[in-house]
Amino acid sequence: MKRFFGRKSDDKIIIEGSEFTHLKKVLRLNEGDKIIANVNDEYDYLCTIAKLNKNDCIAYIDNRSLCQALPKRNVTLFQMLPKKEYFDNILAKSIELGVNKIIPFTSQYTMIKEIKEERVLAQVMTACKQCERSKLVEVSKPIKFDLLPKLLEEYDLAIFAYENEERPFNPQILDGKQNIAIIVGNEAGFSEEEAEILKKYSQSISLGKRILRCDTAVITTLALVSVLSNN
Q1: Helix (H, G, I), strand (E, B), or coil: what is residue 113?
Q2: Cα 189–chain centre separation
Q3: Angle formed by the axes of helices 117-130 and 84-96, to 10°?
Q4: 119-177: per-residue pLDDT in tens?
C-alpha cells in the first residue's frame, strides 16, 4: 500500500503539493483506493481516498496504528559537510538506520558550506517513506565546528568515528544509553587539532584498518549502533 505525507484535519488527511502530484499523476490513484498517510506523528493512518480535487486529495481515516519503524533510541548524526553526492547517500542511509536528527557542520577541511533546504526535505521525505517511518527526520542548518563541544554535552554518549584511533568498537559503551550522538567527518577528514578537541567530548572508535569513504563510515557506525542497541 502506498504511503504519503499530509496534514490531519479532524477525521481526514489532506495530501497536497508534491505528494499530491505523485499520488494523482504518477501513481494514478483514484477515489476509493486505500493508502497509508502520515502526518509527522507516531502513527500510521489507514485511509480511503474520498475526493481528488485540482490541488489536493481528501482521504478519510479508517483506523490508525503505532508506527513500528520508529527508532527506540534518540540518535543524532553530526556530519561534517561532504560533497553533494556523498551527502545525498548519507541522508538516505542514516534515516534508514534509525537517526532522529542530522546536524551538518563545517570545519577546517570543509569546502561545502551550505545545503539546499528544499532538496534536503524532499530527500528526507523519500527516505522516510522508503523505510516506513511516520515522522520526518530533522536536518538542521549547518553549524560551525566550534559549537560541537557544547552540543555534545547534552548526550549520554558521543561516538567519534576516527581513522587514527586504534581502539575497536566496544558494544558495552551503548549499555543504558538513550541519547546518542555520532560524529563522522567528510572525505577530507578532521585536522589533528579538531580530532583532539572531539576526543575530550566523545568516545573515539576505530572502524578497522581500511580507510572508509565518509558515507561508508556513516553506514558502518550507525549499523553497529542500530543492531547492538536494538534500535
Answers
A1: coil
A2: 21
A3: 40
A4: 999 999 999 999 999 999 999 999 999 999 999 999 999 999 988 888 888 888 899 89
HEC per residue, 132-155: CCCCCCEECCCEEHHHHHHHHCCC
Q: Return the ∠ at Cα 222 (arms to 99 and 211), rounded to 5°.
A: 135
User: What does the angle CA 124 – CA 126 – CA 132 come to, to the nearest 5 degrees?
Assistant: 100
Q: Which amino acid is at 64?
A: R
Name which CATH class applies to 3-66: mainly beta
Q: Domain coordinates of the chain in residue numbers? A: 3-66, 74-228
Q: Hey, what's the cell of 165? A: 584511533
Task: Round to whole Å and give the CA distance between 201 and 43.
Answer: 36
Taking domain 74-228, whether its CATH number is 3.30.43.10 is answered by no
- Cβ atoms of 228 and 171 within 8 Å: the answer is yes
Residue 74 burial (CB < 10 Å; 0-12/13-18/19+)?
Answer: middle
Alpha-carbon distance of 76 to 88, in angstroms, equals 17
